[in-house]
Each structure stands twice: as structure tokens, then as C-alpha cells.
Amino acid sequence: MILFGCRKEKYYVRPLEAKGILFQYEYLNYAWGYSHQGYLIDSAGYVHGYKLPVKWNFPDSTRFLSLSQMNENLSQTDTVFFQVPKTELEIYKSKIQSAAKGLLTKPVNEMYDAGSSSFYGFIYDSNAKKYKRFLINQTGDWEIENQSEAAKTIYNWLLSINNSRL
Q1: Which pLDDT score, from 0 to 100, does residue 19 have?
Q2: How far is CA 101 from CA 43, 62, 113, in A?
Q3: Consecutive 10-residue averages of pLDDT for the chain (166 residues)
Q4: Is residue 2 part of a domain?
Q5: Crossing angle for the helix pair 86-93 and 149-164, nearest 10 degrees?
Q6: Helix/strand/coil (H, E, C) string of the chain?
Q7: Which residues on adjacent β-strands are paired with residue 153?
Q8: Please, what is the Cα angle at 57 between 124 and 89, to 5 degrees?
Q9: 148 within a domain of the structure (yes/no)
């Protein structure tokens, strides 16, 4: 008897070139084994998923990633979940600059061995050809909140993507 495994069909085609990464959701956990997964949302609205990427670039101490590092990260994605409608994406894209200026709460230890679920935004500096990542919200072992209203609005939207679309 021959058994065939099921595999997830990909209904969306990843664009050849990312027009820029706007948002990221990332889950990291080192307890009881290693877990690293999440998604990147590009400026065309494609939600690129990744799980246990082989090589992942994290921002440097100044929170920057080069364009080539971001492209390497994008190449580590393994699926495109869906495309956010352009009008919806524009609403949250317009809030990035304001959210990036938000003050962060002090980290509060809430759990142990739960890892972290972090939501980020990116601002691209075309002169330096670098992305600056900023925190929107983090939950898990350590909770941190960006206190700007724009960040809270973006966070609630990203939560809706996690909870109802993936």
C-alpha cells in the first residue's frame, strides 16, 4: 500500500521583488527547544510567512537592517498567506511614522518559558539603504507596549491578522 502525504497548496505567488517591508510578526522561544516563526508584510500587502528559517538576520544594536539583509530574510519565507487589500494596508501604512515615535513601557516579566510574540514596524531610509525596526508591542515572557495611539491601532490590526486570517 502506498501512502501519500498531504501538503498545503500555495494559492498566491510571491512577488519577484519586495517593494519594502512594512510590518513583522515574530514568535521566538528558546525554552524546551527552539521555535522561530512569523511573517513579513511588504508594501504590496503580501503576507510572507516563515518557520524555522535557516539563516535569519536580526537588527544590529541601533535597530537597523541593511537592504541586503532584509532581502535575505525575505528569501527565507516559505509561503505567502494572502494579500492585504490596498485600501486597508494604506490606513496602517500611514500610521508608521507616528508609531515609530511612541514611547515604550518598561519591560514587565509576565511569564516564564513562553517566549515572545513581537510586532514590529519598519521605516526605510533610502539614502542609507537600511530599514530601522521599531517595536509596536511584545507579549510573552516580557511585555512591552508602544504607548502611541498609532502603534495601538496597528497592533490591533496585526492581531486581527493573526487571529482571523492565518
Answers
A1: 56
A2: 20, 15, 30
A3: 38 45 94 91 93 93 91 92 95 97 93 90 88 95 95 96 77
A4: no
A5: 150
A6: CCCCCCCCCCCCCCCCCCCCEEEEEEEEECCCCCEEEEEEEECCCEEEEEECCCCCCCCCCCCEEEHHHHHHHHHCCCEEEEECCHHHHHHHHCCHHHHHCCCECCCEECCCCCCEEEEEEEEEECCCCEEEEEEEEEEECEEEEECCHHHHHHHHHHHHHHHHCC
A7: none
A8: 40
A9: yes
**First-to-last CA distance in the chain?**
34
**Grid coordinates 512569523 are at which residue?**
38
Name residue 138's beta-bridge partners. 118, 144
Expressed as residue numbers, the domain containing 44 is 21-164
> How high is the pLDDT of residue 14?
41
Cell, residue 36: 522561530
19 contacts 43 by C-beta, under 8 angstroms: yes
- Decide if 154 is inside a domain: yes
Cell 505567488 belongs to which residue? 13
Closest by CA position to 23, among listed 48, 6, 5, 1 = 48
CB 64 within 8 A of CB 130: yes
- Strands 130-140 and 64-66, bridge-based pairing: antiparallel
Question: Is residue 55 in some structural domain?
Answer: yes
Domain count, the chain: 1
Q: How far apart are CA 4 and CA 25, in angstroms?
A: 33
